[in-house]
């Protein structure tokens, strides 16, 4: 049920609950101050959650109050609750940005548009509600969230995470431990306990009109645990003699489960037609009165059947009959016999719309029925077309249960598992796979099940067993389906790259060789990930000489693509391929294109990964602040989606360059722990890269070399090339020339094959380091000239630093100062503290004074403010920024107002110049 009321009716007297009322008050104050706030109330049935929502409504008479109540009968109908909530605001949908408008129209079946990513639906809901709150601040009260359909619950949880300065408050209430609460798990929450003894006795006394014996009151309070609903029911249903202590109290007291039994006993005394009507009401959405009375007519019931239930206190008095408490609804439903439920379901099936008819038919059918199963499968396709993947999964599961043939039943279980996977509900996948496995017939079905298991493992960042699992599936398929085999091998290669030498049951090279042998180049769209994955497989299987040309061709193909349809981890593969060739330009261009595509589709999980990889591109170009903004944005989306979160370890490279040792050590420890627990060998490589850069920056060459040597022999080498130049330097400075030569030999082999300016610039630098005579000067100059061609500013400054050090040791102080000053200015302006201090020390040794830089005023900007400011400086409007960051325009306006104040400007046209200013020297 959903309705709006500016002056809600007062509930029973509020007793106690000072802490809870203060928490609600903070929510209301935030809304009144122009901000937003969210709070989830959870606790046992009857403990007082609904009364607290009523208190919030009573306290919000100056706000527009909107209420939504979850309905058990709707839990399987995707976006049903959201549609009820937004129905009064659908007139605003045409004013939404097109992508958001299309997303809502698709899920509500208002046009034939393909389903959008569910996070676009969340953004559209956020925009719609924020726009509605511009006129009058709004408070949304959502009760019984455990009975919201999953799509609606996820959408509302997403909205709760994205609110900031929108004059919107959200209060959710749900039963403790219910499945439906899991999607709200990371929102601010307050557990509602039973009333304290003093408050419970006061509530009981307020409900008793006659004498209340003190000992009886204490017994009732202790027996109910302070449950407010139980206390009120006891006060109403115990006799005056029992309350006065004249006659004994019943044993056991009707509380908790007994309270539900009490409601069932009360309903059992009603006439048969009233009991049938109550059951029909329990199985029908509260606000769909038309459906209720159509089915009632089919059952021969009229409005008069409700009168005895109103008299008995089962239904509330009013123009629309509703259950007095949600617990009564569930009590009525659970008390009915299977035959009674089937009879009501048959009436609902006879009078429902097609998308609901199939489910009611299934519930009305006692034994498996293939015709009903087929109707359910057709209904599941309608759900999928609207993006209701959770609904699709539930309907397919029921279709499987109604299917007589074991093999066909298994197929439907697998389809339901795939729908749960698409919805992001990973815990629901495994039970369906277990149901399907004993029934599977033939290799195709077995392979399908294996692929689903592998997908779950990869979604959970557990690649260890995936490659062997998928190779086994390929073997079972044989030569029957080459295209399906390649899809499995492509996914196996991806898992092998991420798992590295930590995968089990096979090796990365074996996986790569199987994929390389199976690959046949064919006509594919330019955005296809297949050529890139095949190129990575060739490089891993046959060596760099064979793989480099294929990698270069695959990256060129993606650069030429008009659009990208990236899979979730495709950005990671692009990043790895770009690093293998030292091709920063291809990497940046493709990743930026992928980020745009992910934004357009609302694919927040893929977008979060794309931003992580793009952040590293910015780091290599010395744009640390931009990288920090990308990291913040990525973390924001990870939190919004509820997927696996990596904490701060993905910032290890940034911590290394900026010299934040404490954070770096913690990140490295987390990466190594993840590698050990999840079998993600790639995180060990990232950790080694970050540690080596940090240690080289501060002149600890032995430690840097040890970090690099730990990964150097990890075959096949993926992610190793980008560290080779550092290994040459660390080996030479640590006195381990053998290690330096090993790295140099590999660099001499691979850099010319890559042929990119980054690769050739590093090769010239390392040749200069290895040179004994004056030829080093020409090699350093060549390194600088090559690195100037591409956006790798930190590498350029690094070469200038090494050249300056070489010149100083040759007693050419004036020439050394030129290189060292440029290097120092660059490192210092970026915040690359270890390298800046190293360059500063060298400058001092030449006789020049180099003062440390102080932090500039821009450091006062939070990462979110800096990111918004950067986007505003690029020319985007507030609405465009809001759409890009999946927030509201109100939030963007708030951040910009703080940016203006901190930067001392009054117009967005001045943002760019202030962002480009550097701080003064001390």
Description:
- The chain is 63% helix and 4% strand.
- The two termini are 64 Å apart.
- The chain has 7 domains: 2-191, P-loop containing nucleotide triphosphate hydrolases (Rossmann fold); 197-255; 266-442, no CATH class; 521-645, no CATH class; 647-755, Serine Threonine Protein Phosphatase 5, Tetratricopeptide repeat (Alpha Horseshoe), CATH 1.25.40; 756-853; 857-915, Arc Repressor Mutant, subunit A (Orthogonal Bundle), CATH 1.10.10.10.
- The chain has a 6-stranded mixed sheet.
- It has 46 helices and 6 strands.
- It has 922 residues and is mostly helical.
CATH superfamily of the largest domain: P-loop containing nucleotide triphosphate hydrolases
Spatial order of strands in the largest sheet: 1-3-4-5-2-6
Counting DSSP H or I runs of 4 or more residues, the number of helices is 46
User: What is the percentage of strand-forming residues?
Assistant: under 5%
How much helix, percentage-wise, in residues?
55-70%
Uncertain parts: 5-11, 918-922
Mean pLDDT equals 86
What CATH calls the topology of the largest domain is Rossmann fold
User: What would CATH call the class of the largest domain?
Assistant: Alpha Beta
Rg computed from alpha carbons, rounded to a whole number of angstroms: 33 Å
Strand segment tally: 6
Protein name: AAA ATPase domain-containing protein
Domain HTH luxR-type: 854-919
InterPro entries: AAA_16, P-loop_NTPase, Sig_transdc_resp-reg_C-effctor, Tscrpt_reg_LuxR_C, WH-like_DNA-bd_sf
Keywords: ATP-binding, Nucleotide-binding
